[in-house]
Amino acid sequence: MLVPQVWSSVRQGLSRGLSRNVGGRPSGEGRKVDISGIYPPMTTPFTATAEVDYGKLEENLHKLGTFPFKGFVVQGSNGEFPFLTSTERLEVVSRVRQATPKDKLLIAGSGCESTQATVEMTVSMAQVGADAAMVVTPCYYRGRMSSAALIHHYTKVADLSPIPVVLYSVPANTGLDLPVDAVITLSQHPNIVGIKDSGGDVTRIGLIVHKTRKQNFQVLAGSAGFLLASYALGAVGGVCALANVLGAQVCQLERLCLTGQWEDAQKLQHRLIEPNIAVTRHFGIPGLKKAMDWLGYYGGPCRAPLQELSPTEEDTLRMHFTNNGWL
């Protein structure tokens, strides 16, 4: 089987590597990757019995592949990665890699709570085909996650990662913003190529772009609701949940921004804000999966303890899409 082989090879030498001071060239140095563009953070489909439905995953991937995405983010927040086993996380990434053209980037979420577990998962993600690793902030002990602790964590991961690392700040889920000073320090690491910032603070995004402008560091907006503003401030793309259901429209917004058609971009951005809020802040993954069912994809159930929408919530979600002309 895939996973036992992966783990046996990963564990050899990692304990020794984590126990020493790593000051040499990181594994991924010299392999800078251009992450600019739009990515849907893919959901994980489940069957009625809560098993991962790999067939539906591939069906969704083939449909999403008709849009001009730069690639796909797998095992981000929308992938329900905290509810998956390590085996499932790796198998999902492996299946997506097998079904994805080589010219599409595959960014895999590899974050875990401990540094050692994150390194092991990151190496494993590389072995099953990920082009880059997206590493969420560890947050269980958020009261002790100072800038120094986070810089140490990400530096160790990046030192030992065979693929480039993308920082991931998602305070709505973690209760923790990756501090700007930590981002600035980490941007100097040769194997850390950028950040996905999902906080929605465009002032912060602009500051990160400004303070890292001398580094080869790229900022991705973490939501379609502030994509235009992020592009205006120097972001290079977005990882947008809404792209799972309105992929053509999110890519169109990207094109309008990149070609300086700001009036048309503003009009489109306005129409995307309400449905975006609905599938992120208001109803989250259950709302996104319901919208996927409506718009020709397989959303299906979430894995417990996430619950399905109530009929009232469904009606509200539908209203946000119909009022803006998407249903």
From TrEMBL:
GO MF: (R,S)-4-hydroxy-2-oxoglutarate aldolase activity; 4-hydroxy-tetrahydrodipicolinate synthase activity; protein homodimerization activity
Reactions this protein catalyses: (4R)-4-hydroxy-2-oxoglutarate = glyoxylate + pyruvate; (4S)-4-hydroxy-2-oxoglutarate = glyoxylate + pyruvate
Localization per Swiss-Prot or TrEMBL: Mitochondrion
InterPro entries to which the protein is assigned, alphabetical: Aldolase_TIM, DapA-like, Schiff_base-form_aldolases_AS
Enzyme Commission code(s) on record: 4.1.3.16
GO cellular component, one term: mitochondrion
EC supergroup of this enzyme: lyase
Residues binding pyruvate, per UniProt: 239
Highest taxon in the source lineage: Eukaryota
Keywords: Lyase, Mitochondrion, Schiff base, Transit peptide
Pfam families documented for this protein: DHDPS
Active site: 168 (proton donor/acceptor), 196 (schiff-base intermediate with substrate)
GO biological process: glyoxylate catabolic process; oxalate metabolic process; pyruvate biosynthetic process; trans-4-hydroxy-L-proline catabolic process
Entry function: Catalyzes the final step in the metabolic pathway of hydroxyproline.
Quaternary structure note: Homotetramer.
Family: Belongs to the DapA family.
Name of the protein in its database record: 4-hydroxy-2-oxoglutarate aldolase, mitochondrial
The organism of origin for this protein: Loxodonta africana (African elephant)
Taxonomy of the source species: Eukaryota, Metazoa, Chordata, Craniata, Vertebrata
Gene: HOGA1
